[in-house]
Amino acid sequence: MASSSTDRVLRPDNGRFDPLANALRALAIDAVQQANSGHPGAPMGMAEMALALWGEHLRHNPSNPAWPDRDRFVLSNGHASMLLYALLHLTGYDLPLDELRRFRQLHSRTPGHPEVGLTPGVETTTGPLGQGLANAVGMALAEKILAAQFNRPGHAIVDHHTYVFLGDGCLMEGISHEACSLAGVWGLNKLVALYDDNGISIDGNVAGWFGDDTAARFRAYGWQVLGPLDGHDVSALSAAIAEARRSTDRPSLIICRTTIGRGSPGRAGTAKSHGEPLGAAEIAATREAIGWSHPPFEVPAELRREWDAREAGAAREGEWARRFDAYRAAYPELASEFERRMAGRLPEGFAATRAAAVDGCTGNAEPVATRKASQKVLATLAPAIPELLGGSADLTGSNLTDFPGCGALRVDAEGFQPGRHVNYGVREFGMAAVMNGLALHGGFIPYGGTFLTFSDYSRNAIRMAALMKQRVVHVFTHDSIGLGEDGPTHQAVEHAASLRLIPNLDVWRPCDAAETAVAWTHALEQRQRPTALLLSRQNLPAQARTTAQIEQIARGGYVLSDRPSPRAVILATGSEVALAMQAQALLDAEGVAARVVSLPSSTVFDRQDAAWREQVLGRGTPRIGVEAGVTQGWGAYGCVASLGVDAFGESAPGPKVYEHFGLTARRLADLAKQHAAS
Ligand SMILES: Cc1ncc(C[n+]2csc(CCOP(=O)(O)OP(=O)(O)O)c2C)c(N)n1
Hints:
Helices cover 42% and strands 14% of the residues. The protein is an alpha/beta fold and 678 residues long. The strands form 6 sheets. The protein has a 6-stranded parallel sheet, sandwiched between helices. The chain has a 5-stranded parallel sheet with strand order 1-2-3-7-6, sandwiched between helices. Helix 18 links the parallel strand 13 and strand 14.
């Protein structure tokens, strides 16, 4: 539990500063000092926790950070990054001392907060507190499902733990509730969380704003809680980790009472140690107090030898590789399927699956809601792509994220039932961050649904997926005022525009089933980015297209309907493409030739070459944009006018709301006429 000020006393060290822990402390202090920026307090306070875990339990191979069956380690309190960098450096990852000296400098591999893909051994990007913990839940879930799918009697090829360090901040964040509640329900017994219970956050002693009984809270989630124990007692910590590893049915939380900034005579136990360099004088005093006489960045060879985990790691991986060979001999197809999934490669027959999904959506002229089209596409894609793991934040029947035979993930009397669809409950942010963990672990392409208006709840996790280059698909249905009666709380108006602002996120707003099918397959092909699919609640008419046009959908924007020498170009997305087509017909009757451009994904369109963009948008012809949302973005496409919704919506039947906001074919045609070239 968060400690009260009375029991939070500056702990005397009893003269017991383990030199191995001190090596971490010293590197952290020195790097923060050199950078003149960073967070020394948490690394100093968690040094023994790190020693107990990395020194005695973590199964990893520094020479191969991609070993599929390695334990995963997440530093959820990412501001303690120097602790992780010191561990990676000392255990033998490709992170030389020079990189530690360049902590927080441009193009170093030691950025301010850990970034996956940049530093070998970093499993996820952390910094936004609480999300690392949720990522860890996703990783542990991935392990559990993969083990159920691939392990065979006598062949446990998926068998690793997920460890996560977290602090008070992670537990104060609401997402910790969402994710840890799920971890309890799912019985993620191989998830071990070590809580750095130091009673301090930036504003000081947390007693004034964090009085939770954390142990009771986690027991209530169905976790095993160990401690509180002395977070500086390496053997007690190690024993607790060993006990946690023996859990067969529950995740474990180990509460470690620590002193922030431990070892610094002037700063230990204070918020001042949290986020600023100690300064030369205090560093000297600290070196003295902890018995560390070595110059900055120097670690004696004998300590380096003790920390070095390369030999043990290679032996462990070698032992696993032999087991995997035996597995391959017994189950050759499963073995190569496992390798394919962990490598993130789509199945061999993906091109055919893609064609089937698109073909299935092009023959039918019936109007259909794009959320419904999405479900139809999933029914074709999912059986052929076993790594697709669906889910919804308690809106399965609305998001239509399930598919025939998917089965729900459950833990019941029979044990763990993997299933291909996860009921995340009403936890949009938790769902998004857990999906990031699933993707980061490898073996899955997670997708999850909610209403578009609630994408704000998930937003930072979507942003993190984009930053981390993870293939995660968000199915956001009920995408505009078109949803009708639920009213402005549920009618997304600014969300499409605001999602498009996130770098490296693809945003699709398809106008019919064919565009929906292409959007889905395009999303699966993006190994380095997440995708948001914005889908309608209401039916939308199917548009007629040539084969060439169907292929052009994947370019994000294309000419859907042209006229010779058009005098205006109407750009439309999603449900407003039909409106644009109606306006074009009205204009035809009035002798004004207009081109209709469908722009299902401006983010994809923006990546096309200039020639394509010009071919689609035309040159010198006035452009008018239409989308049932804020109009701000149309300037980027050189629109001279636009039709949209620059206010919150209204509660009424969808067509009435469209009329109320003037989103009609007549108004669009008039606008085009007004601006048409003469
Ligand atoms: C979501 C989020 N909000 C705010 C911050 C800024 N921040 C970084 S560390 C911190 C305090 C965290 O306290 P604690 O977890 O106890 O860390 P310690 O002081 O023990 O290092 C805050 C508010 C953040 N990184 N993420």
